[in-house]
Amino acid sequence: MARVVRLHPERENAGNATAQEPAASAPRRRITVAYRAVASAVRDERTRTVARFTARHTLYLAGGVRVVARRAWSARTAARYERAMEAAQAAGLHEQAMVWEERGRAFRAARHQRRMDLLSAPAKLARGLVVGGAAGAGVLLALGGALAWATGSWADVLTPTLAVIRLVHWTAIVIGVVWGPVVAAAPWLALTALWAIGRRAHTAPAWALPAAQRAAGDAGAPITPSIVVTALRDVGIPALRKAIKEMGDHGAQMLSPIVIAGCGVEVDVTLPSGVSTEEVQKRRKKLAENLNRHEHEVFITIPTAARTVRLWIADSGALDEPIGPSPLAIDPDITADYKSGRAPWGQDLRGDAAALSVFQRHLLITGLSNQGKTASLRAVALWLALDPTVELRIADLKGVGDWSMFAGLATTLIEGPTDEHVIEATEMIEEGVAEMERRLLAPRGTTFAPLVLLVDEAQVAFMCPAVGEDKRPYGGTKATSRYFNAVRKIHNQGRAVSVTLWQGTQDPTNDNLPKLVREGAHIRASLVLGTEEQGRMALGDKAVDGGAAPHKLRQGLDKGTVVVAGDGIKVPGSQSSITVRTHFIDDTTAEEIATRAKDRRGGLVTTATAATDEPADHLADIAAVLGDAKRMRTDQVRQRLAERNPGEYRAWTAQRLAAVLETAGADAYKSGGVMVVSRERVRDALAARDENPTESH
Q1: d(CA 189, CA 184)
Q2: Alpha carbon 10 to chain centroid distance?
Q3: Which of 5, 76, 173, 693 has its CA 20 to 30 A from that of 256?
């Protein structure tokens, strides 16, 4: 007897579920496989290439239709005259607006006349056909008569007429054969023409372009009106984009003619209502990318015309090419004239020579470290050194030999970064103040030789913690600072008597370049800086608001490129600044130029290395400047010594004076809180020295 085995109900149900699961999951597996296949196909680069190809050429065709339609509409209507008239009115050119209005009126009158002519055209055409046919028949019969007379056969009278009939017959046959293919090909030819127009107008978006073209872009491509308008349309300003779309000429009315400007092109853009120049300036980087240029290759300035920006667009890579050598290096006969001459400083972005006039102008050059600040400042000083009438006094607070070639050119040359060097530089500026005051008090009509005081790395002076014997700090930004106070005095009155100050400083801040000092310079130049705020400190708000952007220069790549604001250099009337690529003069060439300048000056001896045949009698000179005064402050003694013998005493410091007095036994001492020199002690020292002639001066 067969044995029946029953499974547990739960196990039985589980078994059934297991058996049914493959059948139920099969559709899901098929859907999953299909989804993965489709996703893989979509992600495949070949599929994307085909999709881009299809989208690109479809959009070329659609864009071509749009372009032709707009051109036809513009040609058939007076829209272009109305747009030109509105643009002229917006720019305030009312006479030009009237001219465009008159042209539009003439266009509409001519269009009306053409339409009236079309109404009478059928009757004129019929009359012309009758008259033309009769005249043609008469001519053919006349030719036939002449031919029959010549041949003697009257049958030749109809020969010309029969020839024309045969020509018409064969023409009809040819047209009948060709007409079909022409009709069949015409739509394709029209589509091809529309596609070509769309392709030429770049109507396909960037994502639809081939991969190689997307990677390379159109870098280096010539700048055309359509490229400029497209770049402005896509710059990210909704009002500008909408206005361009509504313009029948695709925004061409906004542009002035594109002109070649040095190593690039220049174009003025009159912005539509509702779009500010500041909005465009803030999008310089995106605009440059839309123009297929790097940010540093596009400069945006504000001309005098209202609601207008001026774009200067460099040829791709042109700004990375070096400019030629300085005329100072290649012309051994070049001369300088402080009053009427201009230093050959470099080239502007147009490629034109940029020359700098320093006549009675204070100069300030700022920038980050190692960007060519010293070289740019030194190039101007080398040119000025070629004018023998100019006196130079130089303090290099870096002290690595960048200005060593001026030994024998400058009457004072201080080189070093220490507090002692800052003290000497401060005293040099204070002596310049004393000279300025002497000149200001001179009789009217007195002429003075130009005096240029130059301090490189001036931030070291402002940051110096040293305090003088009178408890006044040498550095700092307060009115008690000796350096700051002396600089302000020269800025206030120095130019009137040809005493000017040139300063070079790094990384401008309110601590190392006070506002009153930077605003006292007539010429303000800046190399690359880190932030827009620093750019405003270096050049002023007006220059930066007008398009000056030293913070947009590339650190390390734009060495020697300066943005200049102020007078002394030719700046286009509609701009607040100019960008100059300065000539680089290396140390060897600078030595050669300095040697030429020394030859013209006839052997000037620099104070720091002075050596005379007859050494000065320091103690006797001190006694002489003391005169009848019982005692005198040490700084006043040094000032009078410098006036008595500038070549010997101009570079004297408080330490040097103290050492001489101590050696002679006439030590300075403190009286009333300041160091003074006693007349009695000096005279006693002189008497003791006379009794012992072997004692050195």
Answers
A1: 10
A2: 85
A3: 76
